[in-house]
Protein 1
Amino acid sequence: MALDEIIISRAIIDRYYEKLTSCLSSDVAIVGGGPSGLVAGYFLAKAGKKVALFERKLSVGGGMWGGGMLFNEIVVQEEALRILDIFGVRCKQYDDHHYTADAIETVATITGMAVRTGLTIFNCISVEDVMMRQDKVEGLVINWSPVEMAGLHVDPLTVRAAYTIDTTGHDTEVVKVVARKMAGTLDTPTGGIGGEKSMWAERAESDTLKNTREIYPGLYVAGMAANATAGGPRMGPIFGGMLLSGEKVAGELIQRL
Ligand code: 48F
């Protein structure tokens, strides 16, 4: 046994430094590690793109861990089963239209496969702003979440990305910054943020896919953030739209890059 605390520390610092410096510039930066962000990251990585995901919390998975009201099962519709199949997540048929999966298995399996495929995840980092060039989003301004939580006066760091995806869910955090601080308007019906509407699962699921797109040069929205930006309804604990939205945004970006 020749275990050495200093080597253990150095190994962690060296490896993290390698990850962070390699993601100072990437093809795509994803903000938020819920189901839509993780799935988008997986497909982009699979296509060989350099992609980094920043998640405010210690754990990724977003709203999926708790299923509905902490009953840790999720529901998916038939159209999205093929995505869960790609990851090898086991589903059970409930009736003709509804299938269920264990929420913990779903988060853990998608996350594990996305990272092994090449997605780099930075947890406990919050995105507080974007880097702008004229009227285009070209990167993210990041800081440690504990710095944000403690309200410490610490300047952030910046990473560059050809494209950014806001997958921050109901809060649309990146979109809010762009709407407030950058020139011009968003490509939405009102030119601003429509805001999330009340529950209507079926409508919301189809709207999520329609609303998954570029809404400002360099900035895409996916998942619940797509509906909350466009003014669409929420859908609750049915997750097919989130998975399909992640796949769609990745597909569009793979075409463009
Ligand atoms: O909300 P979330 O799970 O996003 P999603 O992929 O899925 C939505 C569903 O979970 C559910 C639903 C329907 O099925 O309505 O709510 O659209 O995950 C969003 C993630 O973004 C992180 C946040 O902690 C969460 O894990 N996040 C939010 N703002 C920031 C952020 C930020 N500024 N920086 C980094 N991460």
Note: Residues 31-37, 54-57, 62-64, 126-127, 167-169, 171, 173, 223-225, 234-235, 239, 242 surround 48F (CB under 6 Å).
Protein 2
Amino acid sequence: MTHYKTPLYGQTAIVTGSSAGIGKAVAKTLAKAGANVTLNYRSSQEAAEEAAHEINTDSDAGTAIVVQGDVGQENDVNTIFKQTISHFGTVDICVANAGMQLDHPLHKMPLEDWEQVLRVNLTGQFLCAKAAILEFKRRGMREDVSKSLGKIIHMSSVHEIIPWAGHANYAASKGGLLMLMESICQEYGPEKIRCNSIAPGAVKTEINKDVWSNEEGREQMLKLIPYKRIGIPEDIGQVASWLASDQAEYINGTTIYVDGGMNCYPGFANGG
Ligand code: NAD
């Protein structure tokens, strides 16, 4: 059990797609800041349980449970929320992290791969935000733990603003997420719900292992990063934990780029 006055003490977070990668690091960092955490997975039960075990055996962290569910299915998202509320009492923080890529040149992209990426990366974010807002409004303000009624963090990407040839479904899903996040901010800010996005650049996880796991791929990646370091999941976890806390209370309706400067068009560094 964490100490009273850790930034997220007494709060509960759901992190979708958190058996590995960025989601796992976010879940661990939120727990370290005092939150109880639901780790959601779609198919990797063992990895999710291992991540929960790491949290539950850390005497400085909150408690973790594991709930299966596909974020693209409304019934599954409702189950993730119901089980969390029945175990921890409510939800204060929703980190809609789950995401995927199915890459093809546009003229060869099967409709089902277009639809699947949009379903997980955009519809899944909508379903999580909807369930979170319903719970925040049902539960009402808890001024003893936070100045906000609730916090939604969407895991976006630099590709919400940088076009990405060969990945149009992914870029379209993240571009759509920018407008979803800003519209939620406009609609629910007056009720003290904060909604923001984090946009990672290149972070070493399974999603891009084919690139960073070989020397040539690493070099290509580094050319896109002014700071000359590939990100690690903990870079994102730290920002998510701070963004969820009252230290970031006045941040609403924005995207925080955590990308070593990737969004600054490094291709133009030497005159273009
Ligand atoms: P990852 O593949 O390790 O993690 C994605 C997780 O989402 C996996 O655990 C996967 O099982 C889960 N998931 C996929 N579909 C799901 C579904 N329908 N329901 C529930 N869970 C599902 O990759 P990651 O890099 O950790 O990605 C996390 C998020 O960060 C994604 O939204 C991704 O788009 C975003 N992101 C990652 C990078 C990067 O460089 N790694 C860059 C920008 C954005």
Note: Residues 16 and 40 are 5 Å apart (CA to CA).
